[in-house]
Amino acid sequence: MNNNYYCVIMAGGIGARFWPMSRTNTPKQFIDILGDGSTLIQKTFNRFRKICPAENIYIVTNEIYKDIVKEQLPKITDEQLVLEPARRNTAPCIAYANYKIKQKNPNAVVVVAPSDHLILKEDVFIDVIEKGLTAVEHNDCLLTIGIKPSCPNTGYGYIQFNEDKFLPENKNIYDVKVFTEKPSLEIAKQFVESGEFLWNAGIFMWSLKSIFNAFELFLPEVNDLFKQGEGLYNTPNELPFIKQIYQVCKNISIDYGVMEKAKNVKVYAADFGWSDLGTWGSLFELRDKNEDNNAIVGKKVLTYNSHNCIVNVPKNKVVVLQGLEDYIVVENDDVLLICKKEDEQQIRQYVADVQVEFGNKYV
Amino acid sequence: MNNNYYCVIMAGGIGARFWPMSRTNTPKQFIDILGDGSTLIQKTFNRFRKICPAENIYIVTNEIYKDIVKEQLPKITDEQLVLEPARRNTAPCIAYANYKIKQKNPNAVVVVAPSDHLILKEDVFIDVIEKGLTAVEHNDCLLTIGIKPSCPNTGYGYIQFNEDKFLPENKNIYDVKVFTEKPSLEIAKQFVESGEFLWNAGIFMWSLKSIFNAFELFLPEVNDLFKQGEGLYNTPNELPFIKQIYQVCKNISIDYGVMEKAKNVKVYAADFGWSDLGTWGSLFELRDKNEDNNAIVGKKVLTYNSHNCIVNVPKNKVVVLQGLEDYIVVENDDVLLICKKEDEQQIRQYVADVQVEFGNKYV
Known about the structure:
The structure is a homodimer.
Chain A (H helix, E strand, L loop, with lengths): L4 E6 L29 H10 L7 E6 L3 H7 L8 E4 L5 H15 L4 E6 L3 E2 L2 H17 L3 E6 L10 E10 L2 E11 L4 H10 L2 E11 H11 L1 H8 L10 H11 L5 H6 L5 E6 L3 E2 L4 H7 L8 E3 L2 E5 L5 E3 L5 E5 L4 E6 L2 E6 L6 H12 L5
Parallel strand pairs in A: 1-2, 1-4, 2-3, 6-10, 12-14, 13-15, 14-16
Antiparallel strand pairs in A: 4-9, 5-11, 6-9, 7-8, 7-9, 8-10, 16-17
Helix pairs in contact in A: 3-7, 6-7
């Protein structure tokens, strides 16, 4: 295992679409959303432990989730926690994590990944990440992972790659032509048909040297803030320094702030059974189904004349469902949601309404 | 208030159709099914307190419900409890209650009524019962109450009355021609159109003298068993005696055993907003509805694009319902039921399945 390999797991999201399973105090990455005994962040951590030493894995999250991270990942030390005092999108927290890592190992090669995605083919994933890290170790580039699209999903960003320009040592790593945010269905169809587009999985790899160069070029105001802290990272002075600069730090994504602007961006075309688990519908596709095509997490659920439902209930709850087609049925603690799968995008609105009507306790 | 007036409230049922609100350890009569703060047996007791002295009200129930009756009706003394050691249908428990009352007051005039029916027009009900008790005090007859049918309901028994033969002092009390059990829809329609049929509400009135005569004539084997206990009722010897005779006592209803055979049966045609609350559907009809015609018991329920549903959930539970038409949604403790209203007759089957799959705890 290469001691220069580092991993930054981003775990600051609040996952409102999985309400009421995900709640403000227990967002999606901290729940066992597949019902198989481990949470998404635990799955992510265990996956990366096969790629880099456990002590090289950093968790970026909001300071309010410090305790839950330590509970779910007991091997993570306080020094490996990158705690944000406020939400500033991905660029600032990546800068922060990079500076912390630089203080430990300026030769680090880093993979940055979300904590709440699903990877079905772990062996393929590990192979891709290891080869990607090798590539960025030897090439001054910013590497992102592009997933071969299986359908014209309009919820993802797309990356157009140049099929004629690939690394000689890895013919799956191409130069990027352009990033496109969530397209219309018509355009998404054209993208998929062309064979030139990949889904942006939000997984990045780079050497510290390459990413610092990019920050200096494209986000100097962010970079300068965090650069002031050199010498403070991994010391008791880190926390007050961070609290201070986060107040004034720009809110910007790494995609918009860096990836879409840099000239040395490459994409690793891969296929490892990836899902961002962005919606109940995407989870339904991935879960095991019963004979009536219901995807059920729960130990005491009986279904009658019900099909294509996704059900998440506590294991001790007896649930009888009859006559439901294509519904989401979720119970978590003091909240029950019953909603048509096709209308799941409205869940955000329901959460907002519940907050107004009944208070923060339930969201 | 006439001290000879007595009331026997029958509270031995298990109300499986209202599962999971009703459970074996808390059947329908013991739950606040309307969500207005009092249980059905409490409503029934309070209604009869306006007709006869509280100490003249007897509660017939299974011995397993003794504690819940005493909790819900603290004014009821142990002597007013008619506890059955086994379920033997209505004739034996009525005989039992009659003998207990006879020991106190052989001149008693008794109304027997279910504990779990709904009466919307209480003033009319009280007037009917008082006039009915007066009638049976002065006439040797067995009086039942017949409800003017509002629709051809096939779930009720029907009583054909003789419109030419009524009591001179009360022209709503007619001779009975025939009792008919639950008819087909076609026949029920004919019954309603003819104007000669009433729904059998299962509420009876008689003097002890008249009912003992009827038992001697039509159910002598039941009567003889309970007659042996004269001198034991309302003493410490009552309980062991009852335990013994219930083992051998016939299982038979008062309708089949007595009412359908006796010649001196009369029916009081009445209309006091009665429902036997036999199904979730009947409850839906009676409950207040919100602007989308949903009948909701629960304090934190939000509905979206949902209509004609009946919802019963704990007051602290946040429930979001979307896209449901004509459903029953009930949560009680550790059980959740979601079922189409039109299929509610299958609930008995679900309860049986839950018992087999997950145990008695949930039924």
